[in-house]
Amino acid sequence: QVHFVESGGGLVQTGGSLRLSCSTSGRDQALDRYGSSWWRPAPGNPREWVAVMATNGTTNYIDPVKGRFTISIENTGNMGYLQMHNLKADDTAVYYCNLFPLRGAGWGQGTQVTVSA
Question: What is the pLDDT of residues 79-91, one digit of tens each?
């Protein structure tokens, strides 16, 4: 079972940047072996995917964050990141990381991102 611990969130002004981190445990090189993803709540949905990275390195993003967010993983495959630039008020949320596709792993506590005007 893979476990996730997210960090790096905080309060930032509109237009600012943050880098979220995802530390995994329980399965070595999990993000490299199985792919990685970042999620946040959406209206009517406890979580929606924001950015994903497949095992072949292919990435995809929801339209509102394209060109502003970048998903990556460390070479070890045990750490993942979400670099966020030009943050907007709509990006305010708790962000979670997980595998991609989801494989029934649990969710971490998430990290809060708050973007102020």
Answer: 999 999 999 999 9
